[in-house]
């Protein structure tokens, strides 16, 4: 087990269309035994970062240290890492047993040690009956377990996982997610997990790194990322359905900061900034569960018209039209609204987010 | 009841529309319905019969006759030609030469072809151009290839001998194709050179679809370059190599023109392969029956080899 320090990591790819900055100035400390997720949309640099940690890619500049030891230029096999690939990358002509012990064999482990470790890993992952089968004869979930086993068997210092659950069907994915969490509880190895699925990142991680366009947007515990997003991108990327965003201005009226958007005026809490440091343009964000249906004559009520109402099991998502656009409201399933119905919305003032500007990198002011 | 009624109605409707179609299209429509499959199969079945089954059958039939070009009727000799054949040293000599010829050319084509494909799979500047150029020998007509190589091999003014002598590797020029010791390898080399691109192209295509993840997983597992080739590449291209070997074996065993044009089977019958023996019997001594008998034996030999191959291929679980 090891702590990982990523120092000013930079990676550019030269292609036909010029230079692509896959990763810009990534600095990150991962504690020993921590489960950290890199999350972001396609092309955000998360996989590049993981591949550099693995040694499959060399950085343009920057360093990687395991327990203070610089491993930036080491071959993957000399790093004592293990990796689980999205496609599992099991050797198709080898049996499960041969797949599991391949790494040990290449490192010259004696036969009895290999047999002992294979037995232990197979028992832990419950794949004993499949040891003499080939990957093609296994189901997706079983292959996934073999891939995990092949990584675990070498007792790596750092465990890297590249979208390991994305090839599984929805039900199995939830199941394997829980198994993965239990596995980390048991082995306590440092794990770096890449995913585009923010739910996986939220449920599994000690900390989450949100990335976009090769730049780290925010790093923090899942609840921090969810409740205090650092900028508009993080706010919109994390959470399903997305946070509602309303663009407008902030001004002060009678000593209280007010947000005004198209057809909306919201009184901001006292701790909100009185004026915006830059353009004066701002984005107000509120999560669907923090929008409530209120009486039409309630103070600050925002009139809206229901367009679509979706039942999602225990809750409902209502898409309502306001003057400036569309807002999603999350309610218990019992709250039934019909398309065309007129409602009034109230925003929970303690849960308002305010961003300086309207671009995706607009920083959060509260 | 309701579903049955619906079915009956559908059937009635279907029958009605069939009758309507028949009234409208007449005979053609009826034919189309009943014999469409047969009609569609007919062209390929006829082609198969005329171009494959008939010549093959006629060849086997001919091999039971002593038939001379001047006596096209011939005399039925039963298995006489085969008895002559199996007691003939020429035949056994040619069978040996043919086997070595096919074995050497196919073996070298596969080993060298895989090596070249691996090289061309590596990224380097101008790779596309080199990949195109590699096809060149395969695209050249055999006669041109033979003429070029006869010039290259020539003992008096051939470039190969010039370079060998000039660099001091040999003291005197070697008559590559007229020396019984070197002629076999001389023709083998041309056979390998000419058909190498076939192997390169197919192996290269297979290399390009091997998942990159496998190599990365192996690198992390601690496999070096040689281990990665043996444990991943070789297993991935194995099936393709088997098929290529099968195709090349059939082709090289039957190959006539390269050897015939380069040496004519000589010197001193050192390159007398079975196809050349067939030619010599059928068109040199005009013994069509004997020529046919050799060709029939070749045919069944290849069938035997193919059966072994297919048994081997089928054993693979995936």
Automatic annotation (TrEMBL), chain A:
<comment type="similarity">
    <text>Belongs to the ABC transporter superfamily.</text>
</comment>
<keyword id="KW-0813">Transport</keyword>
<dbReference type="GO" id="GO:0055052">
    <property type="term" value="C:ATP-binding cassette (ABC) transporter complex, substrate-binding subunit-containing"/>
</dbReference>
<dbReference type="InterPro" id="IPR003439">
    <property type="entry name" value="ABC_transporter-like_ATP-bd"/>
</dbReference>
<dbReference type="GO" id="GO:0140359">
    <property type="term" value="F:ABC-type transporter activity"/>
</dbReference>
<dbReference type="InterPro" id="IPR003593">
    <property type="entry name" value="AAA+_ATPase"/>
</dbReference>
<keyword id="KW-0067">ATP-binding</keyword>
<dbReference type="InterPro" id="IPR047641">
    <property type="entry name" value="ABC_transpr_MalK/UgpC-like"/>
</dbReference>
<keyword id="KW-0547">Nucleotide-binding</keyword>
<dbReference type="GO" id="GO:0005524">
    <property type="term" value="F:ATP binding"/>
</dbReference>
<dbReference type="InterPro" id="IPR015855">
    <property type="entry name" value="ABC_transpr_MalK-like"/>
</dbReference>
<dbReference type="InterPro" id="IPR027417">
    <property type="entry name" value="P-loop_NTPase"/>
</dbReference>
<dbReference type="InterPro" id="IPR012340">
    <property type="entry name" value="NA-bd_OB-fold"/>
</dbReference>
<dbReference type="GO" id="GO:0016887">
    <property type="term" value="F:ATP hydrolysis activity"/>
</dbReference>
<dbReference type="InterPro" id="IPR008995">
    <property type="entry name" value="Mo/tungstate-bd_C_term_dom"/>
</dbReference>
<protein>
    <submittedName>
        <fullName>ABC transporter ATP-binding protein</fullName>
    </submittedName>
</protein>
<dbReference type="InterPro" id="IPR017871">
    <property type="entry name" value="ABC_transporter-like_CS"/>
</dbReference>
<dbReference type="GO" id="GO:0008643">
    <property type="term" value="P:carbohydrate transport"/>
</dbReference>
<feature type="domain" description="ABC transporter">
    <location>
        <begin position="4"/>
        <end position="238"/>
    </location>
</feature>
<dbReference type="Pfam" id="PF08402">
    <property type="entry name" value="TOBE_2"/>
</dbReference>
<dbReference type="Pfam" id="PF00005">
    <property type="entry name" value="ABC_tran"/>
</dbReference>
<dbReference type="InterPro" id="IPR013611">
    <property type="entry name" value="Transp-assoc_OB_typ2"/>
</dbReference>
TrEMBL record, chain B:
<keyword id="KW-0813">Transport</keyword>
<feature type="transmembrane region" description="Helical">
    <location>
        <begin position="100"/>
        <end position="120"/>
    </location>
</feature>
<dbReference type="InterPro" id="IPR000515">
    <property type="entry name" value="MetI-like"/>
</dbReference>
<feature type="transmembrane region" description="Helical">
    <location>
        <begin position="38"/>
        <end position="61"/>
    </location>
</feature>
<protein>
    <submittedName>
        <fullName>Sugar ABC transporter permease</fullName>
    </submittedName>
</protein>
<dbReference type="InterPro" id="IPR051393">
    <property type="entry name" value="ABC_transporter_permease"/>
</dbReference>
<feature type="transmembrane region" description="Helical">
    <location>
        <begin position="184"/>
        <end position="205"/>
    </location>
</feature>
<dbReference type="GO" id="GO:0055085">
    <property type="term" value="P:transmembrane transport"/>
</dbReference>
<keyword id="KW-1003">Cell membrane</keyword>
<dbReference type="InterPro" id="IPR035906">
    <property type="entry name" value="MetI-like_sf"/>
</dbReference>
<feature type="domain" description="ABC transmembrane type-1">
    <location>
        <begin position="95"/>
        <end position="309"/>
    </location>
</feature>
<dbReference type="Pfam" id="PF00528">
    <property type="entry name" value="BPD_transp_1"/>
</dbReference>
<dbReference type="GO" id="GO:0005886">
    <property type="term" value="C:plasma membrane"/>
</dbReference>
<comment type="similarity">
    <text>Belongs to the binding-protein-dependent transport system permease family.</text>
</comment>
<keyword id="KW-1133">Transmembrane helix</keyword>
<keyword id="KW-0472">Membrane</keyword>
<feature type="transmembrane region" description="Helical">
    <location>
        <begin position="132"/>
        <end position="153"/>
    </location>
</feature>
<feature type="transmembrane region" description="Helical">
    <location>
        <begin position="159"/>
        <end position="177"/>
    </location>
</feature>
<feature type="transmembrane region" description="Helical">
    <location>
        <begin position="291"/>
        <end position="312"/>
    </location>
</feature>
<keyword id="KW-0812">Transmembrane</keyword>
């Amino acid at each position: 087990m090891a702590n990982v320090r990523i120092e000013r990591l930079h990676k550019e790819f030269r292609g036909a269309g010029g230079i692509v900055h896959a990763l810009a100035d990534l600095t990150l400390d991962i504690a020993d035994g921590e489960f950290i997720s890199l999350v972001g949309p396609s092309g955000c640099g998360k996989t590049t970062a993981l591949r550099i940690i693995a040694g499959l890619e060399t950085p343009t500049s920057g360093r990687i240290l395991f327990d203070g030891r610089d491993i930036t230029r080491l071959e993957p096999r000399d790093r004592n890492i293990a990796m689980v690939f999205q496609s599992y990358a099991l050797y198709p002509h080898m049996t499960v047993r041969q797949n599991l012990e391949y790494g040990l064999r290449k490192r010259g482990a004696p036969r009895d040690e290999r047999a002992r470790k294979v037995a232990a890993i197979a028992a832990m992952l419950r794949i004993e009956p499949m040891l003499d089968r080939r990957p093609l004869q296994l189901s997706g979930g079983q292959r996934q377990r073999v891939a995990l086993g092949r990584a675990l068997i070498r007792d790596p210092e750092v465990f890297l996982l590249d979208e390991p659950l994305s090839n599984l069907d929805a039900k199995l994915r939830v199941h394997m997610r829980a198994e993965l969490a239990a596995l980390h509880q048991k082995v306590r190895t440092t794990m770096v997990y890449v995913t585009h699925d923010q739910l996986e990142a939220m449920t599994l991680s000690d900390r989450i790194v949100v990335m976009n366009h090769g730049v780290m947007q925010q790093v923090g515990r899942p609840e921090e990322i969810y409740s205090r997003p650092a900028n508009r991108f993080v706010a919109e990327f994390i959470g399903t359905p997305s946070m509602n965003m309303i663009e407008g201005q902030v001004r002060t009226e009678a000593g209280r900061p007010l947000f005004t958007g198209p057809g909306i005026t919201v009184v901001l809490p006292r701790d909100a900034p009185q004026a915006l440091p830059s353009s004066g343009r701002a984005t107000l964000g509120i999560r669907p569960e923090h929008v409530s249906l209120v009486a039409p004559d309630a103070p600050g009520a925002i009139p809206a018209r229901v367009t679509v109402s979706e039942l999602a099991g225990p809750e409902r998502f209502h898409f309502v039209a306001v003057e400036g656009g569309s807002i999603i409201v999350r309610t218990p399933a019992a709250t039934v609204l019909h398309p065309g119905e007129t409602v009034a919305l109230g925003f929970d003032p303690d849960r308002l987010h305010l961003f300086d500007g309207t671009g995706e990198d607009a920083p959060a002011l509260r | 009841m309701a579903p049955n009624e619906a079915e009956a109605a559908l059937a009635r409707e279907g029958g009605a529309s069939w009758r309507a179609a028949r009234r409208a299209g007449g005979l053609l429509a009826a034919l189309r319905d009943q014999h469409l499959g047969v009609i569609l199969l007919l062209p390929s079945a006829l082609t198969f019969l005329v171009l494959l089954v008939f010549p093959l059958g006629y060849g086997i039939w001919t091999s039971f006759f002593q038939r001379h070009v001047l006596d096209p009727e011939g005399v039925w000799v039963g298995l006489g030609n085969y008895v002559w054949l199996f007691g003939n040293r020429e035949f056994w000599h040619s069978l040996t030469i043919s086997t070595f010829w096919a074995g050497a050319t196919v073996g070298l084509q596969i080993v060298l072809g895989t090596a070249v494909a691996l090289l061309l799979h590596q990224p380097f500047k101008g790779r596309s151009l080199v990949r195109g150029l590699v096809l060149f020998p395969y695209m050249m007509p055999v006669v041109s290839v033979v003429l070029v190589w006869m010039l290259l091999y020539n003992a008096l003014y051939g470039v190969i001998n010039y370079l060998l002598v000039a660099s001091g590797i040999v003291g005197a020029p070697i008559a590559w194709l007229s020396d019984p010791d070197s002629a076999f390898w001389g023709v083998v080399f041309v056979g390998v050179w000419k058909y190498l691109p076939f192997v390169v192209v197919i192996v290269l295509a297979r290399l390009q679809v091997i998942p990159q993840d496998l190599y990365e997983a192996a690198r992390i597992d601690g496999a070096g370059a040689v281990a990665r080739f043996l444990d991943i590449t070789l297993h991935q291209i194995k099936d393709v190599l088997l098929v290529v070997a099968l195709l090349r074996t059939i082709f090289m065993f039957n190959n006539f023109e390269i050897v015939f044009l380069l040496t004519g089977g000589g010197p001193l019958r050192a390159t007398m392969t079975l196809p050349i023996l067939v030619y010599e019997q059928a068109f040199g001594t005009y013994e069509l029956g004997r020529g046919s008998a050799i060709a029939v034996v070749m045919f069944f030999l290849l069938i035997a080899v193919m059966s072994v191959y297919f048994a081997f291929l089928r054993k693979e679980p995936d």
